[in-house]
Amino acid sequence: MEQQPIIEARNLSKSFGNFAAVQDVSFSIYQGDVYGFLGQNGAGKSTTMRMLLGLIFPDNGSVYIKGTRFNNSSRHLLKHVGAVIERPDLYKYLSGWDNLRMFAKLSGGKISEERLNEVLDVVGLKGREQDKVKGYSQGMKQRLGIAIAMVHNPDLLILDEPTNGLDPQGIYEMRLLIQRLSKDFGKTILISSHLLYEIEQMATRMIIIHKGKKVVEGDVKTLMAPAENLMQVRLQNNTNALATITDSTWGKLLTSHHGDTYTFKMPQTDMPALNDWLVSAALGVLEIKSTHSLESYFLSLTNNEHAKAGAV
Amino acid sequence: MLRLELYKIFKRPRTYISFAIVTAIAMVIQLAMLADGKNFISFALQAVTEQFDIQGNILNGYLVAYIILQSLLVQIPLLIALVAGDALAGEAGMGTLRLLLTKPQSRTKIVLVKFIASLCYALMLITWLAVVALGLSVLIFGQGDLINLKSDSFVVLLKQDIPWRYVAAFGFAALAMATVASLALLLSSFADNAIGPIMGTMGVIVVLMIFSTLELPIFAVIKKYLFTTHMIGWKGFFDDPVPYAAILRSATVLVVYTIVFVGITIFWFNRKDIKS
């Protein structure tokens, strides 16, 4: 029997005036996914996430939570979801504990004090819960936001830019926390971020949207393992290197050349053979690596000018 | 959910500003009456004393409370707007509305709870007004018959006949404040920060009150349909005989306005995209 998605977006569209923010976007998130949601600023990520949560009403299309159509009259389905959308804005004049307790009571079902302490422990805020939120750092607010999102033990966590405004240490801690939520607590997570490296580290599946339209969706490993990669080779300063390469059979695979760095477009499996040839040709190999990161993949799909910068 | 809403309201220091303002105004008037009340009374009753012999404790707590209530006619609705106007727009401005609406609670319930919480706040403010305006005045100035001066006549109410009138007047004032709260909540649902709805409510009330009180023929037609005209219906309880039909009509108008304002708020809020 086919697994039922926890949440499913079917042909979602939303316009603000003449601006089409989201156009016909569909995707499904299944139990256990860490689902990366990628797109440039203004691509429609937040609007889509808000439609999933009923904050914004779609012009067309629908959202299904655990197989049931979600709309304004079925808001009880939100008990299956916890979310932090953009900034975790909280009641600054209340303590962290008060904020958590208050939102816990609104999350459906009775939530014990023990559970409140448990989630505070998970997000690393134990001992600071009685402080007023106005004294919290951005990272602490983000973590309290996640505690509020997960306090009722939802099936799905929706985290919109959870690393926004955090310093490098905060980003690292947030990544560890999200990985922990997925691995140790089995949470299904939908996460959007500008930080592609973070998504690359965490996501199992992903969707990329551009100008409101879905560009690609699927398993991260599959999407990130295309038939041909860009291989970047750095050689010792050798005036004959370019001529040697272009005269060889590898020459037709060379796509760009900047200083002592040469980029080849070829299957990753041919990398050892290239290395062997470079060594035999005494070109002094300093470094050889695949440049196919999520970043380059993302930029190539969204036609960013940066993606074209390295082209011959 | 109502308890949480009240908790949020009463945890904010600015909520108590209204209570402080009411206390300050009441006490300033009481001090003024203590200092110069006798002269004020003899001046006010000048026309009456020419034809009538008035004896007894005229400058009493009931009279001072009545003067305070007249003075607070405009201020109290504005203080209600401070909280009710902030109810939805303030949350939108803080960003907490976004988080609140990711919880499995219906939007209609959220509006109703915020309205009831604003109403509770209004009731508490009016109760406090009763304590400082009536209770404190009676404590300071004692009891006595109330002389209610009108434009072309005056009414004398015996002191044993007064307490129930105050209870009824405060009850009516609560109803009027419910209308104000519902208007402020309606404007609050349109905005993403609290300043607009608070100022908007104040503006609407001030302008409509001018229409309601100006004795110009041009306003005569619309006057009876304005809720501000009926907000002063509490004064009827200090008339003799009490104009029950007029009070009931005013109460009905206020209830209808309240239901309409809350109804529009629910309708609008259930269709509103939360972009803040």
Polypeptide structure, described:
The complex is a heterodimer of chains A (312) and B (276). Chain A contains 11 helices and 14 strands. With 312 residues, chain A is an alpha/beta fold. Chain A has 2 domains: 7-220, 3-Layer(aba) Sandwich (Rossmann fold), CATH 3.40.50; 229-291, Alpha-Beta Plaits (2-Layer Sandwich). Chain A has a 6-stranded mixed β-sheet, sandwiched between helices. A 4-stranded antiparallel β-sheet of chain A has the order 2-1-4-5, with helices on one face. In chain A, strand 4 (60-65) and strand 5 (68-70) form a beta hairpin. In chain A, helix 3 crosses helix 4 (138-150). Chain A is elongated, with a radius of gyration of 23 Å. In chain A, 39% of the residues are buried. Chain B has one domain. By secondary structure, chain B is mainly alpha-helical. Chain B has helices spanning 2-11, 15-44, 46-51, 61-71, 75-84, 89-94, 96-100, 107-141, 163-190, 195-213, 217-223, 227-231, 244-269, and strands spanning 146-149, 154-157. Chain B has a two-stranded antiparallel sheet. Chain B contains 13 helices and 2 strands, in the order H-H-H-H-H-H-H-H-E-E-H-H-H-H-H. At the A-B interface, strand 6, helix 2 and helix 4 of A face helix 1 and helix 7 of B.
